[in-house]
Amino acid sequence: MRNFTKILCAVLALVIALSAASCTLTKxxxxxxxxxxxxxxxxxxxxxxxxxxxxxxAQKSDKYDSEAGTYDGSKSFLKMEITDxxxxxxxxxxxxxxxxxxxxxxxVAVYHEYNELGATLDEASASYYENMYESYWDSIxxxxxxxxxxxxxxxxxxITIPLMRSAVFEKEYSENGPHAVADDDLQKFFNExxxxxxxxxxxxxTSEETPVTxxxxxxxxxxxxxxxxxxxxxxxxxxxxxxxxxxxxxSKTISEVxxxxxxxxxxxxxxxxxxxxxxxxTTDELExxxxxxxxxETKSVIIGDDANTRQIYLIYRAPISDEKDYTKxxxxxxxxxxxxxxDEFNDLLQSIAAELTVTKSSxxxxxxxxxxxx
Length: 374
Fold this sequence. Notes:
Helices cover about 45% and strands about 15% of the residues. By secondary structure, it is of the alpha+beta class.
């Protein structure tokens, strides 16, 4: 069940129905405000997710021995110091409890703003996804219920609140929202942070499928990859450089050189086009190569350390100023605003939570990070 939050965040664009005026799932609450009473199961859910996040951070430490499965000589990582992506260093068990509290604060703030802004969720899609996750619950219920996380708590913490959060974000920053983003500011952020690019690629290895039969007589195929010779690789490099020069000189577009490549090699390569924000610390080799290009520049690069998996790419980085209509699309606009304002929104939710009158149950003291170790 590790990294479960990341899995569930993939459904943020989806919706689930709920009445947000009041939500009481159990008599044993964890956090309670005028808007909502969150069950103890919600707190345990967040505690478990924080535990998994802390474990991942601990395993990135140079004190972690992957072969022995120990942390600085101990089977438990809870007493070791970890450092998160924000540079916060703390003893793991303290970090976990603080992170769970942060999630709880965000949850009550989301509920409050959901009501204040009159945000809504689409009921039409709700039953579909509710049924889907009800079915999924059957396969994971034993793992969650043994810690005290019920189906209702799982749905609320793992799906509904994130979906409400998404709805609140859209309300906050949409046109006429309390923190509406001006068109000029949005376009400026887009121009300064997004990258437009096109590319196609070719394998620098050949693949051969061989029929095989196992001991029980079952037939299948086995694929063998073989690196191209140095001369063959040089032929690709020379041609891809020629293609890049043709695009740079303006004599051909990347679509036209793609057609020329497919005809010359009998290939069926396709053009990939995208506009995205590439992180400065990206570890993706293709994204690194794209970022290294100047706008309007075309270049061929070989990516891959293994000769049996290497590929050659022809990449064109287009001027982002050519994409003036990109943010006019409502989905694109919201996506760019999300990149622009997520950190600010996180801070906003924490500040809202700090202003709310929250009653916290002592029942939470009965649940500690160590409960997840076995």
